[in-house]
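Async update (no meeting this week)

Hi team, since we skipped the sync, here's where things stand on the single-chain job. The sequence we agreed to prioritize is pasted below, unchanged from the tracker. I ran it this morning and attached the output directly underneath so nobody has to dig for it. Comments welcome in thread, and please keep replies under the output.
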Amino acid sequence: MISNAARAYGASRAGLDPRLQEADVFRRVSGALRLSRDDDGPRRARALADNRRLWLAVGGVVQDPTNALPVDLRAQIASVSHAVLRELNEPQPDLDFLIDINDMLAIGLSSRR
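Output:
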């Protein structure tokens, strides 16, 4: 069952611009990766799995022909997605690389157009 605090937080985030919501997702995944640096157990496995799910979703969205982003930008994001997924397939993924990529996307999404 979702706590009242979690429901309130979710409701407050729902009113945000979609780009800011997306930036928040990247920040959360980066935060989980940072917290997992000293943990080779379930915390790291969860953080890496969440990062994989995020980038699989990003890759799928930019490959959708109905996506409104410019084709060149979609191709660039797809390339980043492939690089992240390749890194995630490594036996010991480079957490700093993954965090940096997520942080850059969060900054880009948070900036004004």
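Quick observations from my side:
Residues 42-63 form the longest helix (22 residues).
DSSP finds five helices and no strands in the chain.
Reply here if anything looks off.
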